[in-house]
Write a structure and sequence with these properties.
Distance between the termini: 38 Å
CATH architecture: 2-Layer Sandwich
Order of helices and strands: EEHEHEHEH
CATH topology: Transcription Regulator spoIIAA
Number of helices: 4
Largest sheet: 5 strands, mixed
Helix content: 40-55%
Number of strands: 5
Number of domains: 1
Strand content: 25-35%
Length: about 120
């Protein structure tokens, strides 16, 4: 089974809500799709809300994060994981992505993510 994404074009960024089963394949494909859609629509900033089900191990998270960094150099990503059981893994992944040059931060709620993203965009 694959993932589902709902996109909303917002004034300053592209919003993406992802759901479905967690897998390395799904995660990498989603971030490829996100980059392609952002390029096509003229967005370099993204708000991603992750409501996928399942949990990956640390090695898988590291692998996905390296791929995200390659795909999204030059982009800004606010990533929201409201699930307590996966937040720490996604925070680790966010650190990996940030250490490879993507402006990113992981949040547990959308309100803080939007605030950070808008401020980061404003600062340029």
């Amino acid at each position: 089974m694959s993932y589902k994404v709902r996109y909303e074009e917002r004034e300053e960024y592209l919003f993406a809500h992802i759901s479905g089963p967690e897998s390395v394949h799904n995660a990498i494909n989603f971030f490829k799709e996100l980059r392609a859609k952002g390029d096509a629509e003229g967005y370099g900033a993204f708000l991603v809300v992750d409501e996928v089900s399942g949990k990956l191990d640390t090695n898988d998270t590291f692998h996905i994060s390296k791929e995200i960094a390659k795909l999204h150099i030059g982009n800004t990503i606010a990533f929201v994981d409201p699930k307590e059981e996966t937040f720490a893994a996604n925070a680790f992944g966010g650190t990996v992505v940030a250490n490879r040059g993507v402006i990113t931060r992981v949040f547990d709620n959308e309100i803080d993510a939007v605030e950070w993203l808008k401020e980061t965009i404003k600062r340029g």
